[in-house]
Amino acid sequence: xxxxxDHHANPRTLLTPATLKVVDSIARAGHVPMHAMNAAxxxxxxxxAANVLELPVQKLARVEDFTIPARDGYALPARHYAxxxxxxxxxxYLHGGGFTVGNIATHDGLCRRLAHLADCAVVSLDYRLAPxxxxxxxxxxxxxxLQWIAHHGAARGLDGTRLAIGGDSAGGTLSAACAIEARDHxxxxxxxLLFYPGCAGHQNTASHKxxxxxxxxxxxxxxxxFEQYISHDPYAQ
Length: 237
Fold this sequence. Notes:
single chain, 237 residues, alpha/beta, Rossmann fold, six-stranded mixed beta sheet, disordered N terminus, disordered C terminus
C-alpha cells in the first residue's frame, strides 16, 4: 500500500471529493501566494481568510483573555476557553501558520470547538512570530507557557496535573518539541494533539515532491516560512 502511495501517478485522486472542492475553490480564488508577500502582508492576508471554513461560533461559559510571562518578562497573550467554571484538565493550543502568520483570533473557532467537544479547558497562545522573532523564540514561548500552566494554572481553574499540548502545522511542530522538553524535565503530559505537524527540517521526502504544487501549502510557501523563521541560525542545523 505504501509503495503504491509513494508512486501514485495523480495525487489528486488521493483526496476526498470534499477536500478536492476546497483545494479547487482556493485555486480559483487566485489570491497572491504568501511567498510573494512580505511578512506583514502575509499576516494580514492569513487573518483575513481565517474564517472562510469556520463552523458557527461555539458558545462557552468561559472565554477570557489573559497573559503568561515569558522568560524575558514579555507578557504572552493567551485566551482561556472552558465549557464550565469548574477546575478542568487543560490543553495548551499552539496555532499554525509557518511560525510567521496566525494568532489567537485565527484559531478562535477551532479552540472553542475543542473545549466544547473534549469538555476541557483550552489555552490558546500568541507565541511571538517570525521574522521579528526567529528560532528558537516560538519554541521558548511555548515551553514557558506550558510550564506556567503546570505550575501556576490552578489560580485560573486549570488543572496542571491533567495537561495536554497540541497544535496544527507549525503549532504541531512546537507541540511535539515541547513534549520532548516535558519528558526531559519530568513534566507529565496526558497527550499530544498534533494536526499535520511539520516533523522534518528538509523538504526531501516523497510526499514533499508529490504535493509540491497545487495542494494549498506549496513548496514555495514552505520554503518561505522556513526562511522567515530559521534563516541561517546554526541552532537549527
